[in-house]
Amino acid sequence: QVQLVESGGGLVQAGGSLRLSCVVSGSLFVPSVMGWYRQAPGKQRELVADITSGGRTNYADSVKGRFTISRDNVQNTMYLQMNSLKPEDTAVYYCYAEIIVVSYNGWGRGTQVTVSS
Q1: Of 15, 21, 82, 90, which shows the fewest CB atoms inside 10 Å?
Q2: Pick from 78, 87, 110: which is nearest to 9 by CA?
Q3: % helix, strand, coil for the chain, step of 5
Q4: Taking the alpha carbons of 45, 112, 36, 81 in that order, is the dihedral positive or negative?
Q5: Using CA atoms, how far apart are residues 44 and 41, in angstroms rounded to an integer?
Q6: Largest CA distance in the chain
């Protein structure tokens, strides 16, 4: 019933910016934690950033200072502002959420981010 839908991916030149969104539907409860993960071809999925219901954030070292995670608990939407993009940021970016009160944890289908050199 709960669904996560990512959007905002695309093709951008190195040094450019993108803003990803993840909309949560099917639940009236605020996720305890949400996060962005990414998976590049031939590599394992890795954490990019996450954010708790209280606003505590965590970033992978590779994106610190360049990416900013945020969430709007009224609109049930999480964002990832990505600046100073590098070719190594190229990956499918996935939204993750945990909603403890309805025993939910799951993933979106992903959105492709491609950074050209």
Answers
A1: 15
A2: 110
A3: 5, 55, 40
A4: positive
A5: 8
A6: 44
Q: Confidence class of residue 1 from pLDDT cuts 50, 70 and 90?
A: confident
Alpha-carbon span 6 to 2, nearest angstrom: 14
Nearest residue to 53 via CA among 103, 1, 98: 98
Backbone angles phi, psi at 33, to 5 degrees: -150, 145
The DSSP call for residue 56 is -
**Cα 108 from Cα 71, distance rounded (Å):** 16
Q: Residue for token digits 């991916």?
A: 9
Task: Find out whether 43 and 23 touch, Cβ atoms under 8 Å.
Answer: no
Dump pLDDT digits (tens) for 41-84: 999 999 999 999 999 999 999 999 999 999 998 899 999 999 99
